[in-house]
Every structure is written in C-alpha cells, then in structure tokens.
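ERR on first pass: missing label on line 2. Operator R.T. fixed the label and resubmitted. Corrected input:
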Amino acid sequence: MRDNSYKAVMARRNEIMKAAVGLDYSVFESGSIAFDYEGMMAAPGLGMDEVNRVMRSFSVGNTPLIELKNISALARKYARPGFGARIAVKDEACNPSGSFKARRAALSVYMAKRMGYQGVITATSGNYGAAVASCCAKAGLRCIVVQECFDSRGLGQPEIVEKARKCEALGAEVVQLSVGPELFYVFLRLLEETGYFNASLYTPYGILGIESLGWELARQCREQFSQEPAMVVATNAGGGNLTGTARGMAKAGCGAPIAAASVDLKGLHMASDGAFNRKSFTTGHTGFGMPFTTWPDRSDVPRSAARPLRYMDRYVTVTQGQVFYTTEMLAVLEGMERGPAGNTSLTAAFALAQELPEDSLLVVQETEYTGAGKHQNAQLDFARQNGIRILTGDPALQVPGENIVLPEHPGQLSVREVSLDHLRHSLIKTSMGGRDALPREGDLDFLAEETRTSRDYVTDAINRLLEERDEKNG
Amino acid sequence: MAKQGDWVTVKSVILQPGERAPQVPQDTADTPLLQWVKGHLLQDAEIGQQAEVRTRTGRLARGEVVEEAPGYHHSFGGFVPELQQAQESILRAMWGERK
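pass 2 clean. output:
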C-alpha cells in the first residue's frame, strides 16, 4: 500500500509532476542557477499560428479592444495640459469562461487531450478553474478543480464561492479546502489517484496561450488606432499574465513598455486562517505578486514559464478601495459592468495615463466577468460583516485587513511605485542560496536575463550580497 | 435522512493540527486542514454520519455528511452606501451638477 502521509507524498512530488505534465524539465537544467528558459518555451513546438488556431477551436480570444472615451476624458481633467493618454481596454470578459485565463486553459487542455490524458486537474481559487472546466467541457475531458475556499469555521469568500459554482456549472468536480499551503499535498494525491493531467498555471502551455493576448493587442492597436501603445498595463499576481502578454507583443513586433499593477495587501499573511476572510481580493495582489516576481520557481512545476521580472518596465500598486471605485467608474461612465479584480490594471491606468501625452495610447490588457459574490457590492458587504471598516476618504489611509477606503473623488486614484532594483536584488539573493562565491558566467548571464539587467549589474549585486554576509558572520 | 443516490456534501479532515506543514502560521497550524467534496451517496445516511459518495469524476470519497442537496446562497449583498457615494462622486466629476 502506498504511503500517503504528507511527508511521503511531498517526497514523491517530482515524479508525480513529471507524469502529470508530460514534460521532462531536467533536460533544460544546467546543474547550477541557470536553465534554458527559451528552450523550455520552445519544447511544445507550438508556433503563434498554431496557438491562435487552438484558441479559435475553443472559441477563445479575438476579444474586442474598447476605447474608454469617458474615462480617458475624466483622467485628462486631473492631468497637466496636453497630457492624459487615450485608454483602451481588452475586454477579456468576452471569453467563454469570462476571463483571459481561458487562453491559458485552452492550450493546456488541448495538450492534455493530444497526449491522451482522460482528465485534467488544476489547483486554483481563481478564474482559471472556470477556464479549465470550460475547455474540458468542450474537449470532452473530465475536470477536477482544487480550491482553497473556506476558513476553519467554514466561512467562504463570496468571490471564491461563486467561482466554485461556475466550475460546477461547467461540469467540473470541485474539491474545496480550508486555508493552507497543504492544498498542494491534496493536489498531488489527486494527480496520483486519477492519473489526470496537471493544468498548472506555470507550464509553457499556459504562458504560450497568453501570448495570443499580447499578439492580438499589438495588431488591434495598429488596425484600430494606427499607433503603437505608449504603455500596456497588466495586473500581476503569479506573473503569467504579464509574461505571456509581453512575449506575444514581442512576437507581433511591439516593444511597448509594460507596467505591472497589483493590489496592495501588505501585512496580510497569505497562509493565515484568520487573515483569509479579511482580504477582499483573492488574486491580483501583492501577496502573490511580490513573491512570484522575485522567485518564480516557487510554483507547482520545477521551472515556471512565468518570469515577469524579465518583462516589466515598472511595478505599481493600488489599494482595494481604489479598485472598487474604478469598477464603479467603468460601470457608470462606460456602461461596462465587470469584476473588480480584473480592474486592478485599469485603476493603475487612470493614474498612469496622466503621465502620458494626450495623443498617446495606453492599453489595459484585461477585464473579467462579474456576478453574485464576485462583485464589489457583495465583497464590501462581506468585508463589513467580517469586521472590516468601509470608509470614504483618502485611500492613503488604508490598512489592509482593517479597513477599505474608497476615494472621495477620481483625483484620489493614484499609484505607488515599487522599486524594481529592490525586486531584482531579491531575485538574485534567492537564486544565490547558500553559495559563497560568484557563480559561473552562464549563471551571471542568466540572472542578467532574469532581472533584465547586465552581467555587471548582477556581479555588483552579488559582490554586495557576499560582503554583507561576511560582515554579518565576521 | 439522506437516501442512497442523493447529492450531498461530505466533509473530512485531511491533516490534524499536529500534522500541518512546518511553514504555516500559528493560527493555521492550530486548525485541521478540512476538505469538502460533493457526490451521490452510496448508502443511506443521516447528517453528521460518516458515508461514502461517488463524485462527478467517478471517484469515491468518504467523510461526514454535512449537507443534503447543497445549493448556492451567495448574492450581491446588502446596500453599501459608500458605493452609492462613489457613483455620485464619479458622475459629478465627469458631468458636473445635473438637474
């Protein structure tokens, strides 16, 4: 009989994953810090044309790029004369499952079917569950979604409860868990029990699927606006959204700068039972954004295909209250009711547009569906019932987990800058682990790519790190 | 009493408080890791009894029957005055005071 204890299952994780992803990651390893990222991305042998063909086969993609004329005009009122870019949004809510995650799921489910798996499992409390369920429904595959849903009292986040309903509506089995990272243990056991495919968010398939978003976006800017975007804003959590979009834009010859945006949830522990229902965002926040940006390989596969620090030009945060406010703005000024979490990047865009000339174009690359539970009204009512103070005032006064402050007027929509140098140093430090000398040249070049810097930058950072360590030990 | 074949939710303990992963914070470590799964009952059972179900994907799962005919009860919530204020301030900033 197989030992299914926590320790034993976790010790088998690599062999379980290898069988469940259909990809041997060891061939990309250098034996040191570096690995062959582009080699891994090319391994599935899927070009842009084939990716787009798969998207069409699942009725995914080709979402409209909509100019937000009223919101653009309103942002301009708060900008210097001559500033305030036109803001356009890629309406990803139009995908069959209601978010850009459909792109990620389509390619994974297509590969699962092609490789002969009978079903697909995914571990997610987000829109990705519905996306995988939707694609499995179309492909005739079975589907299990594993969710962190309730605290130990059995109280569920309304947003996650709604996502569970949607997965079940699309024919999936939903396994719901209380708070904790051991979700991964349950996930591994299910993979072993069923022999299903692991539709991880972080395989090359998932990221190649999102490339279709960046590719479409670049072409739509040219066709509809006859110009390149001056900036693209992407919500950042696990990093795949930004990575895939940037890579797809590059494949379409578009090198526009990319700003990452996350909701600031500083101070809330992501694995805390008590904090679980004190946050009103379950994704798109710094609790995922920061750790996954500085250490992508913390994901559920040996090497993550989502490596956002390679592609971001800026990283900004906004507050929960600002995002809820912007969600209202999209509804009452543009007539578009969409889910709050997907409007994180739009919130940042309202402020960022004011830095850009008025004849330039700023693109927000997603929206998501809304509905009961997954709506600012439901989430704020739930927050209040759980002891969070809901206020109208200066958003700078927010304390995540204690209050949510909605702005008094649109002029209080602002962004807070995250230092990219700080993130880069953090990534380099984690990559170094316990090493006490400069790694080999291949590793330095790899870290330069990982941080979008130079070999000199990386060398300097490592030397400083080693000096600091010597002083500490000295 | 739920009958054989009825659609129910069963709850089970996956890890006891002493078995939680070493990295979890104390408040989480003090609670068990719980799991809820839905399926068709394989035998008649009362709420609170241990029973086995067959899930959507055909798996067998065991646990305490906690709900018969589980539905969906989430909503859009009650009135949130701050959202009303938000709408009014946005419309005022955009269009000015309208009669």
